[in-house]
Amino acid sequence: MSETAIWHMADIWEHVSDAIPDSEAVIFEDRRLSWKDYEDQAARIAQTLTQHGLSQGAKISIYSYNSAEYLVAQFGAFKARMCPINVNYRYLETELAHVINNSDSEAIVFQAAFAPRLEAIRDQLSQVKLFLEIEDGSGEHFEGALSYSEALKNSGPMPRIKRSDDDIYMLYTGGTTGLPKGVMYDHKTFSKSLITKAMELRGLPIPEKPADVGPVVAALAAKGLSPRCIPACPLMHGTGMWVGVVIPHSLGGTAILFDNKRFDPDALLQLIEAEKAQEVVIVGDVFAKPLAKALSTAKAAGRPYDMSSLRMVNSSGVMFSSDAKKDILEHMDVTIFDSMGSTEGSIGVSIANRDSIKGDKTAKFQLSPTSKVMTEDGREIEPGSGDVGLLCNGGMVPIGYYKDEAKTAETFKTFNGVRYSVPGDYARLEADGTITLLGRGSTCINSGGEKIYPEEVEEALKSYEAVYDCLVVGVPDNRFGQAVTAVFSVNGGQTIESAALKNHVRELLADYKAPRHYILTEKVPRADNGKADYKTAKSIALKDLGIAEQ
Questions:
Q1: Percent of the chain beyond pLDDT 90?
Q2: pLDDT in tens, 493-544
Q3: Is 3.40.50.300 the CATH classification of the domain at 444-550?
């Protein structure tokens, strides 16, 4: 009787390394790591962690911009059966201390530039046994930290060990309210789900065990088909890490890292061109619109970028409008995979190319086979009924939130014997089986007894040519309870009359959904990962309208 297969990300990547040791695994600036070097460095970091008293299950905070060290440290944690913790490099002291302490991190791998911020909370980090500092030329240093480069040089590689697919993988999500929460997966659910998705998308055989991955990636490499992917968004977020690294790596692909300290569309386009990237991972309009503008400007100047190598554009997390997709496809002959989901699970995808984009509506997604639209008591919504329900993901479902049983019970529910992730997104299930995303219940506006979902109105607003970005919020109103209010920015040099914008929205939506107030702002507030900051948008609206915050 054969031994039960153990699904663990470290095992999968070790099989990839054995199969294609000389192929490129990671590229960042002038550094190029082969799979053999990648695994060797990860094994040395794993040994460093164990030598400093960390054991199976220990949490390792990674506090870094996109870098080769980030990926090596994560792989090293996996190899040692430890759990890497993503730390948002934009966090200030309160949130930073919360993530490190809430996760029970016993080690921090960090770029030296962040030493002053760590120094400010040093006395709060009593659980941390090891500070591993990545030299970055900033001139900063955390007293007592171990040099990352010295650790690589002085630690031998940790031998491979037997692992369990019950080992925990965790990703911290900021969400829209409250302090960040750790979303927990077991390695079997996490690794098997993502590798299955990767293989299915390319028509490859689904491996029955991790050892089966080796022959598949070797065959891809022999044909020159190993994916070359640029995660243009931060590795500290699920979209960048999962779609930009984990999936390509599981196919023996190369992660080509992009300096994400600030988003420079021309720098990204130059990297695509230079490295002959086949895939790029972005975050909706926040990335797509600047990219389209840079492509258009270069073409008009007679020096168009060569995008011939690119085959796939992946996006997740925020709105990717139809107009932005059309602008991208004008310059790139690619397939756009616009995924809808969150750290708690993927729910659906909208696929577009040059042939299909005509007439597309941004918020239309094809529901994944494991997902449903249900009422709050678990009744399935009938296609075409017009009823609104909650999106429920039944595929790659997390174990729950780390140390938060109440939030776990609220978000992960069992209907008809099937466990679902129910993050709070509302949608309609159309007659053709697609879903129209309406938005989070927490941002739903009640105006005169009618429920209005911001994303539906935002999509209508963003289809107006002069609108660059927008968010829709509800503000207090004596007559209707709440008034729909648009906070928007415009394309450079253009002006908009509120009446014209309102008439445009009324042509697309019922009158009661059209905003009563239009607030022009230089920049629509969003988090660094592109997600909508409705709280700040509402503050902008209230201030402009002279309404006191409640």
A1: 68
A2: 788 888 899 999 999 888 889 999 999 999 999 977 778 899 999 999 999 9
A3: no
**Type of residue at 8:** H
Pairing assessment for the beta strands 312-316 and 335-342 based on DSSP bridges: parallel
Q: Would the CA dihedral through 498, 503, 504, 506 be positive or negative?
A: positive
Question: Is the Cβ–Cβ distance between 211 and 222 less than 8 Å?
Answer: no
Q: Which residue has the higher pLDDT, 41 or 357?
A: 41
Q: What are the extents of the domains in the chain?
A: 363-442, 444-550
The 3-class SS string of 13-64 reads HHHHHHHCCCCEEEEECCEEEEHHHHHHHHHHHHHHHHHCCCCCCCEEEEEC
How many residues are present in the chain?
550
| Residues near 416 by beta carbon (within 8 Å), at least 6 away in sequence | 378
262 secondary structure, DSSP code: S
With a CB cutoff of 8 Å and minimum separation 6, the contacts of 352 are 325, 329, 335, 336, 338, 360
pTM of the model: 0.86
Superfamily of domain 363-442: Luciferase; Domain 3 (2.30.38.10)
First-to-last alpha carbon distance for the chain, in angstroms, is: 66
374: nearest Cα among 341, 346, 351, 347: 347
Q: Contact, 77 vs 46, CB < 8 A? A: yes
Backbone angles phi, psi at 225, to 5 degrees: -110, 10
Q: Tokens representing 524?
A: 């629509």
Q: Using alpha carbons only, what angle is made at residue 237 by residues 12 and 332, rounded to the nearest 5 degrees?
A: 85
